[in-house]
From TrEMBL:
<dbReference type="InterPro" id="IPR006311">
    <property type="entry name" value="TAT_signal"/>
</dbReference>
<dbReference type="InterPro" id="IPR016170">
    <property type="entry name" value="Cytok_DH_C_sf"/>
</dbReference>
<dbReference type="Pfam" id="PF09265">
    <property type="entry name" value="Cytokin-bind"/>
</dbReference>
<comment type="similarity">
    <text>Belongs to the oxygen-dependent FAD-linked oxidoreductase family.</text>
</comment>
<dbReference type="InterPro" id="IPR016169">
    <property type="entry name" value="FAD-bd_PCMH_sub2"/>
</dbReference>
<dbReference type="InterPro" id="IPR050432">
    <property type="entry name" value="FAD-linked_Oxidoreductases_BP"/>
</dbReference>
<keyword id="KW-0560">Oxidoreductase</keyword>
<dbReference type="Pfam" id="PF01565">
    <property type="entry name" value="FAD_binding_4"/>
</dbReference>
<keyword id="KW-0285">Flavoprotein</keyword>
<feature type="domain" description="FAD-binding PCMH-type">
    <location>
        <begin position="72"/>
        <end position="245"/>
    </location>
</feature>
<keyword id="KW-0274">FAD</keyword>
<dbReference type="InterPro" id="IPR015345">
    <property type="entry name" value="Cytokinin_DH_FAD/cytokin-bd"/>
</dbReference>
<dbReference type="InterPro" id="IPR016166">
    <property type="entry name" value="FAD-bd_PCMH"/>
</dbReference>
<dbReference type="InterPro" id="IPR016167">
    <property type="entry name" value="FAD-bd_PCMH_sub1"/>
</dbReference>
<protein>
    <submittedName>
        <fullName>FAD-binding protein</fullName>
    </submittedName>
</protein>
<dbReference type="InterPro" id="IPR036318">
    <property type="entry name" value="FAD-bd_PCMH-like_sf"/>
</dbReference>
<dbReference type="InterPro" id="IPR016164">
    <property type="entry name" value="FAD-linked_Oxase-like_C"/>
</dbReference>
Length: 499
């Protein structure tokens, strides 16, 4: 590894391991020992001075060869742990000059190699400061977890919270803003997506330029980066909305074994004043699907919810759970941390499938698709999830969602398949990827759905053009302007990088 002192003095990692440059012809980094042994290679390009670390050791590189899915594996040539935004800028500029692909890495919670690269991987968790926290906004580094921000905001007086939080909150701010950030545990009904609550960004473009952008300043970059899959810039800081937070959460759990009853009650609850958040789980064994609605109200201890009016007209008998706000917000994290500790979660293969459905077709979609699934299609540790989103609250051009229709709602559907163990049977991955391709084609062509691009769906550059639709020309123009040599985030394959 090279840090600033090691770079200047040769100390720390040992003189033989100190990187002093990059060999454009050989496509590899040059150590001091190699440079001394082969003076004819004196024309190598010198690595810029860094505040953080550039790691070339096998352990560092092996640690970032895959993502949550454990399907795609790609070993980078080097790993940057930046000590500053300047490090990100300097190394992107350097990599652009030498045509080295660059991928930022938060928690790598995608499942099909979207954040991998064979060149330089930047571990954004190295940048995780909260720079400012006020009553209505927070300025944070892109590598901070939403969990860390939620805890800090809730500790303020008066209490605050981000208006939209993903179900699993140990994800980085930069990572979820790059894909959209759905309201998995907070928000969604009347709060839009996480990208709808960004006031300003600091971005390192594919040319190495550090840019502050917003709706009014460099808006083309702002629009292209939020939900833009890392194609035009690396988010390094974000200024985000904060809103008041209640102290308590009451959740009503309602179970169903009938598609029509489930959707009837779901539509009542997402339109019911006083209900703050709704999501649903589903399972299927190829016969009758089962559903569980989670409907939550945030409140102060002195003013608990009135259960009767909130549940009027609902056919299922609820189970009621009362918790503190943060206990509720981190409930999915608690579950995942448990299976991580007991079931080897991080090593399991996860060929996830994630799409948007318009409100007009979602009931028919689940009624049709769930009949085709077997226990293998979800797995003992997997989950089927449904998240409602009021269309009028989504204000950003990306992520791409279904075309507007008669329904004011749209829904994210997740079939979060998890293999039973780390050693999958031969053909399992190919079978699940083929299933995802079939499901996506059906979702798009029969039901008007679009991709939520965190899952495992093989996509060609032509598929991506069709996916982005009328937004594609603006995204392509931003790519040409801000990443003209195409070095950023090749793993998505949006502009043809993927093999």
């Amino acid at each position: 590894m090279i840090g600033r002192r090691a770079f200047l003095t040769g100390a720390g990692a040992g003189a033989a391991a100190v990187v002093v440059g990059f060999d454009p012809l050989g496509g590899g980094w040059v150590t001091r020992a190699e440079a001394a042994a082969r003076p004819e290679r004196s024309s190598f390009a010198r690595v810029p001075e860094l505040d953080g670390e550039l790691a070339l050791d096998a352990a560092s590189r092996d640690a970032v060869t895959t993502d949550l899915g454990n399907i795609v594996h790609q070993r980078p040539r080097a790993v940057l742990r930046p000590g500053s935004v300047r490090d990100v800028s300097r190394m992107v500029r350097f990599c652009r000059e030498h045509r080295v692909p660059v991928a930022p890495r938060g928690q790598a919670h995608t499942t099909y190699g979207q954040g991998l690269a064979d060149g330089l991987v930047i571990e954004m968790r190295s940048l995780r400061r909260i720079h400012a926290l006020t009553a209505d906004r927070a300025e944070v580094d892109a590598g901070i977890h939403w969990m860390e921000l939620a805890k800090a905001a809730f500790a303020r007086t008066p209490r605050r919270t981000p208006p939209v939080l993903t179900g699993y909150t140990q994800l980085t701010v930069g990572g979820t803003l790059s894909v959209g950030g759905i309201g998995g545990i907070v928000g969604g009904l009347d709060s839009g997506l996480q990208v709808d609550h960004v006031r300003e960004l600091e971005v390192v473009t594919g040319t190495g330029e550090v840019v502050r952008c917003s709706r009014r300043r460099r808006s083309d970059l702002f629009d292209a980066v939020l939900g833009g899959l890392g194609q035009c810039g690396i988010i390094t800081k974000a200024v985000l909305d904060l809103v008041p937070a209640k102290e308590r959460a009451r959740t009503y759990l309602l179970g169903y074994d009938d598609n029509a009853r489930f959707f009837r009650d779901l539509r009542i609850l997402i339109e019911r004043p006083g209900i703050d958040h709704v999501y649903a789980e589903f399972t299927s064994a190829g016969t009758s699907p089962t559903y569980t609605i989670h409907a939550t109200v945030f409140h102060e201890p002195a003013a608990p919810p009135k259960d009767g009016p909130l549940l009027a007209g609902v056919s299922a008998t609820p189970e009621i759970q009362d918790t503190g706000y943060l206990e509720y917000v981190f409930s999915i994290d608690t579950l995942i941390d448990e299976v991580r500790a007991t079931q080897g979660w991080d090593r399991l293969v996860k060929p996830w499938f994630d799409v948007w459905l318009p409100g007009e077709t979602v009931e028919r979609y689940l009624g049709d698709v769930l009949k085709t699934l077997t226990p293998k299609d979800i797995g003992p540790l997997g989950a089927g999830l449904l998240y409602p989103q009021r269309r009028s609250e989504k204000g950003r051009p990306l992520p791409r969602v279904p075309e507007a229709g008669a329904s004011p709602w749209m829904f994210v559907i997740d079939i979060n398949t998890v293999a039973e163990g780390p050693d999958v049977e031969p053909g399992y991955v190919a079978e699940m990827l083929a299933r995802n391709e079939r499901l996506y084609a059906r979702t798009r062509d029969e039901y008007g759905g679009t991709l939520y691009p965190i899952g495992s769906v093989p996509m060609t550059a032509r598929d991506w053009r069709a996916h982005f639709g009328d937004v594609w020309p603006k995204l392509r123009a931003a790519k040409r302007r801000y990443d003209p040599d195409g070095v950023l985030t090749p793993g998505q394959g949006v502009f043809g990088h993927r093999d």
